[in-house]
Design goal:
Layout lengths: L2 H9 L2 H8 L5 E5 L5 H10 L2 E6 L2 H9 L4 E3 L14 E7 L8 H11 E9 L4 H8 L24 H10 L2 E10 L2 E2 L4 H4 L2 E8 L2
């Protein structure tokens, strides 16, 4: 792994957790893959095979430079291009909160793969709560946008996401709550700024 990728992985604390949950040699679909860094990281550390899905032209070019197979499409239109059960894992990394059709994308993820891995900034983190109490929308390392230019439209807490999974008949297999690269085990909904979940559909 080159120095640039190692630095990026350190910045994205969820990468290591995701890699630990993905079996070696698995088939992976990375939704909203950005420049393809996560998928390349998984290829180099877990020997996965897979595709990224992205819509932005400049990120498609970045994926090509990273040696990542990428399909240009809008996630909001669904995943009809992929057959049911065609992947071992579908990953939605820090993209869930920007989706308009959250329920649909979760259902589609668990149609095309056995398991899904979802990461998102925890809106229940104490500094976010404090900013709201002080009359402002939160701005932080994991929520870096101002209210007027944010792509985030469906922010949630850990408890919100877990209730959402129960409503969709989705089983939570593992959960990792992180703050600045460290695991949070005490009051995670208050002290964790980033959540990572591995889930599957109940039969």
């Amino acid at each position: 792994m080159n120095a640039q990728m190692m630095a990026h992985a350190r910045q994205r604390a969820d990468f290591e957790t995701i890699a630990a949950w993905v079996q070696s040699g698995a088939k992976v679909l990375d939704l909203g893959c950005g420049d393809g860094t996560l998928l390349r990281y998984l290829k180099e550390t877990r020997k996965v095979w897979g595709y990224g899905v992205e819509i932005a032209d400049e990120k498609i070019l970045a994926c090509a430079k990273n040696g990542v197979n990428v399909i240009q499409t809008d996630l909001e239109s669904g995943l009809e291009a992929f057959e049911s059960g065609s992947f071992d894992y579908v990953i939605l990394s820090q993209t869930l909160q920007s989706m308009k059709h959250t329920e649909r994308i979760m259902q589609e993820m668990l149609r095309v793969a056995k398991q899904a891995i979802v990461t998102f900034p925890n809106f229940g983190y104490w500094q976010h709560r404090l900013q709201v109490i002080n009359g402002h929308m939160p701005v932080s390392r994991d929520l870096p946008y101002q209210w007027y230019d944010t792509p985030n439209i469906h922010l949630c807490t850990l408890k919100d996401f877990e209730a959402f999974c129960a409503q969709l008949n989705v089983r939570i297999l593992e959960r990792s709550v992180i703050h600045r690269g460290h695991q949070v085990s005490v009051l995670p909904n208050l002290f964790g700024s980033l959540a990572v979940y591995r889930v599957e559909r109940l039969s």
